[in-house]
Amino acid sequence: MSETLNLERWDVLVVGAGAAGIGAAIAAARNGARVLLVDAGPMVGGELVSGIPVDGCLSSRGEWVVGGVCRDLFAECERLGGYIGPINDYRSLHVVAVDPEIMKVAVVNLLSAAGVALRLYSYADGVVMDGDRLRGVIVVTKGRRVLVEAATVIDASGDGDVAVAAGVPHEIGDAALGELQPVTLMFRMIGVDAERLLRFVRDHPENAGLGEFEGLGLDRRQCAEALYRQGLPKVFLVGDGPLMRDAIARGLLHRSSMMGITPTSLARREVSVNTTRVGHLDATDTARLSSAFADLVRQVWDCAGFLKACVPGFEQAVFSGLAPRIGIRETRRILCDVVLGDDDVALARKRPDGIAKGAHEIDVHLAGTGHHRRPIQGGGSYDIPFGMLLARGIANLMVVGRCMSATRIAHSSARVMGTCLAMGQAAGTAAAMLREDNDPLNDLRALPVDRLRARLAAQGAILEGTA
Ligand SMILES: Cc1cc2nc3c(=O)[nH]c(=O)nc-3n(C[C@H](O)[C@H](O)[C@H](O)COP(=O)(O)OP(=O)(O)OC[C@H]3O[C@@H](n4cnc5c(N)ncnc54)[C@H](O)[C@@H]3O)c2cc1C
Description:
By secondary structure, the protein is an alpha+beta fold. It has helices spanning 19-30, 68-79, 100-114, 161-165, 194-203, 220-230, 242-249, 286-291, 293-310, 342-346, 408-414, 417-436, 449-458, and strands spanning 6-15, 35-38, 83-88, 94-98, 117-119, 123-130, 133-141, 144-155, 170-172, 187-190, 235-238, 258-265, 270-274, 318-322, 332-334, 354-358, 362-365, 371-374, 382-385, 397-399.
């Protein structure tokens, strides 16, 4: 049975308004394209507004490796009073902490200023192909099915929904072991006494992840002291430290490798907490994902009680909110022309066709208390090649963000939000440049990478000169 669809035409369609999609949409619009950004949910930002810090912007050495749209978002958060900035966790990371409530406003401001058309509550549900080209994406909204035609489509859906519908091959988790990183529900607490919390870590450093990057040149105790002097409640409690281990054994806490505490607002004395987990779950199975929600909420509530009862600094703290959605670390990895490899990441590989940089450690969360982590060689950064964005066999589709083309190990590093924003910026810029070229075939592979790199560099992206 044939179906009559409503029809719309745009230069660039971006599916998914998380870090990657926002980077793509803003960059494409700033470069002159008419851009539609659709998201299935009621809010912009994806994981960017869940309270987790933005990783991958600075290397373990403390060198900025992401600029452009990402830095503009931070500047807007700062203008609005919601930017805490880079924090050394004295483990191996420099994270960037922001207020997730302010980040929502900052994202909307930047999208509006760039002229991006935003469509929320809009689910990309299929594609219409024209040979090796994507003619358009079928977007389902309340009571309407729309065929959105676009010269270039950017899949930033996290799950690669568009690419899969278009028949692009993909992998999921560790196929051999049937393993996927666990899902997590983030939450926040206000009224936290940072000084007391940091003093506790200084006096009992065995409870925290500290001093993992050799380049710090500090032992565990010195790291705890430096963390204390930094004065910001960025603390990584470890599951095998006595505090968490005992709470897990006594049934006060779910089994987890970690409890990542990050400041979200200095004014509210608020932190976010990253610790809950449900493993062995394919998050593209909506029924199973939804059935994990009650368990995650119970874990949140237990953990808030544990923090108040057992962790110095939280005695007077009050629960202040759940993340807008269950956080998904890993589902599909779409296979593009180039697949980012384990060694590309681990050995900080640079390449001439780099259009973005990653710098986060290898970071595979396992179910329960397992966690596979490994710093990048020398605390440096690696390049994301342009071919990693080009969906195999399709002329005008790019894939960015969590559903990127990478091995599982490489993905565990490049999935973080600084890298997703940078990847998105590159894709959006490429899409807009192709439109300028008036190529009737709109073949992304015809775009010279040198020109793209020059444009990205001129617009603040960091592509050269990092360790
Ligand atoms: C618990 C947790 C902790 C993490 N910790 C950190 C951290 O500390 N620092 C860090 O930088 N990163 C962290 N990460 C990783 C990082 O947050 C994500 O990998 C990254 O945000 C992914 O960005 P994205 O834009 O690809 O996807 P998302 O942010 O997931 O956005 C995808 C968007 O696409 C929309 N969408 C999905 N399907 C469709 C469809 N079919 N049609 C329309 N819209 C659709 C969704 O509604 C969503 O808004 C963490 C992740 C989790 C889950």
